[in-house]
């Protein structure tokens, strides 16, 4: 499927590139997969989500990061929670040893099972971490690591999962950590300024470029997902992205390929580090998560453990784990996982503002199995999307994302000339005035999923009232409204932000 014209979705800094393809805008749900040697110990502190941690005044907050995939970096802080745990459970064992356990676990890994489960959950695309910050590659690369021998899998995890995903009708993308590789630069990262200062220099830029070109040419990924930064300059990045667009014309590039040369000059002195750390703290307080700076070339934005508060004309995806980590964390308690209410409503909120949800799954490192608490959350998404996938998949933002009405939160999005209304905590029976919608003689309301619904209005210019019954006690109820107008602007639903 090729790109279709989609005004308003081409980043201003990348006007020469393609528009964001329809398949990505239609998808609404993607699955991120973090599965690395760090999944073997699978442990991180759980006291804070990443946003509140970075917003705090804690010294070296990243030493206590809740992400298990950062296990190797956390070990470099002798007093960190991970170091204390490691000393107790794995005394004197270096991180690199976990690769052998990880490789052994591949014997029981079933990529077809993963793909079937992700498709059943309602996902339309996957993004697999092909190489995270530890530098370990999940394919038998022809570009060997010069610092750690055999630092990759013999089994082609990337290729096999890509084939299984596409066999289920899913798009398949790859994540590559261009900004960090701890086999090239193992400087401890405790703060945001450390993060960017730790981007390797020297031969690493050519190494990373060769890796990504290999991934592009070998696997033709539908999504090219970078992280942290890009070690080369803007010219090198432009050439790389041009190669990707030539090979995958309807592919998507995320917003984390910031050329390192743009950042490196600002990180040479202590005063700059203080400014960067203070700025990062204020942004985390404002955004309640991580919002990457805009690079010169990108297609989609990727707020992390965060979302946006308005309809966006730029394509975006909300990126987060099912608990407080991306990688598998055996330290997570039930309270650290998204509840059914949180997951269902946050998904509706993202869709109403024109975004996708890229929800992470973290398989176990020892056997490649997806833990039951994560499978439960995938089942919850399947229930929501099974209500009426056609009312969600392929939708676009309406003229407003929604507000509170009658004490309940409401979200709207446009679906082929109709308006889908999502009501939070509806109860099995009830009614609600929607002040954003006005009825006409042609207005009809249909309950999506179980139950029945109808509408009433005292006048064609008055608020639309939805009545429902028999809808169960789920956290969200969805209704399709046809023939209504936007009460505040007079616009018809088909005038949505397409």
From TrEMBL:
Q: Which GO terms describe its biological process?
A: fucose metabolic process; glycoside catabolic process
Q: Which Gene3D superfamilies match?
A: Glycosidases
Look up the EC number in the record and give it. Answer: 3.2.1.51
GO CC terms, sorted: lysosome
Superkingdom of this protein's organism: Bacteria
Q: Which UniProt keywords apply?
A: Glycosidase, Hydrolase, Signal
InterPro entries per UniProt: FUC_metazoa-typ, GH, Glyco_hydro_29, Glyco_hydro_29_N
* Single GO MF descriptor: alpha-L-fucosidase activity
Ranges for domain Glycoside hydrolase family 29 N-terminal come to 20-386
Q: Decide whether keyword Signal is in the record.
A: yes
Which family is this protein grouped under?
Belongs to the glycosyl hydrolase 29 family.
Its biological purpose: Alpha-L-fucosidase is responsible for hydrolyzing the alpha-1,6-linked fucose joined to the reducing-end N-acetylglucosamine of the carbohydrate moieties of glycoproteins.
What's the protein called, per UniProt? alpha-L-fucosidase
Tell me what organism the protein belongs to. Candidatus Neomicrothrix parvicella RN1
């Amino acid at each position: 499927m090729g790109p279709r014209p989609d005004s308003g979705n081409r980043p201003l800094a990348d006007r020469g590139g393609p528009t964001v393809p329809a398949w990505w805008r239609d998808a609404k749900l993607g699955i991120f997969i973090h599965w690395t040697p760090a999944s073997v110990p699978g442990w991180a502190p759980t006291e804070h989500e990443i946003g509140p941690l970075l917003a705090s005044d804690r010294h070296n907050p990243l030493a206590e990061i809740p992400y298990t995939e950062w296990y190797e970096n956390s070990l470099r802080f002798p007093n960190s929670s991970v170091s204390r745990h490691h000393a107790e459970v794995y005394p004197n064992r270096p991180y690199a040893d976990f690769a052998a356990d990880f490789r052994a676990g591949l014997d029981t890994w079933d990529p077809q099972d993963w793909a079937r489960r992700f498709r059943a959950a309602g996902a339309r695309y996957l993004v697999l971490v092909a190489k995270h910050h530890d530098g370990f590659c999940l394919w038998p690369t022809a570009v060997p690591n010069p610092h750690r021998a055999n630092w990759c899998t013999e089994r082609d995890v990337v290729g096999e999962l890509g084939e299984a995903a596409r066999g289920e009708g899913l798009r398949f993308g790859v994540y590559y950590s261009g900004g960090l590789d701890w086999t090239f630069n193992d400087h401890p990262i405790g703060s945001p300024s450390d993060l960017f200062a730790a981007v390797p220099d020297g031969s690493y830029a050519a190494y990373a470029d060769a890796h990504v070109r290999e991934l592009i040419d070998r696997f033709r990924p539908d999504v090219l997902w970078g992280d942290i930064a890009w070690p080369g300059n803007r010219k090198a990045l432009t050439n790389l992205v041009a190669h990707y667009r030539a090979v995958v014309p309807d592919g998507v590039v995320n917003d984390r390929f910031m050329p390192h040369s743009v950042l490196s000059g600002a990180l040479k002195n202590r005063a700059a580090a203080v400014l960067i750390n203070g700025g990062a703290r204020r942004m985390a307080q404002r955004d309640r998560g991580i919002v990457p700076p805009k690079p010169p070339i990108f297609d989609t934005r990727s707020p992390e453990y965060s979302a946006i508060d308005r309809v966006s004309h730029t394509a975006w995806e909300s990126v987060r784990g099912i608990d407080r980590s991306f990688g598998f964390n055996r330290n997570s308690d039930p309270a650290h996982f998204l509840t059914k209410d949180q997951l269902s409503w946050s998904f509706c909120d993202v869709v109403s503002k024109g975004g996708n949800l890229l929800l992470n799954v973290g398989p176990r490192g020892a056997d490649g199995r997806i833990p039951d608490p994560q499978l439960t959350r995938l089942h919850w998404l399947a229930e929501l999307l099974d209500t009426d996938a056609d009312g969600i998949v392929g939708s676009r933002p309406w003229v407003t994302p929604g507000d509170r009405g009658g004490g309940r939160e409401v979200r709207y999005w446009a679906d082929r000339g109709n308006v889908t209304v999502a009501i939070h905590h509806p109860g099995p029976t009830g009614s609600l005035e929607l002040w954003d919608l006005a009825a006409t003689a042609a207005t009809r309301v249909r309950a999506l999923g179980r139950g029945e619904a109808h509408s009433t209005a005292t006048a064609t210019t008055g608020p639309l009232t939805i009545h429902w019954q028999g809808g169960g006690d789920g956290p969200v109820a969805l209704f399709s409204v046809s023939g209504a107008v936007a009460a505040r602007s007079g616009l018809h639903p088909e005038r949505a932000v397409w």
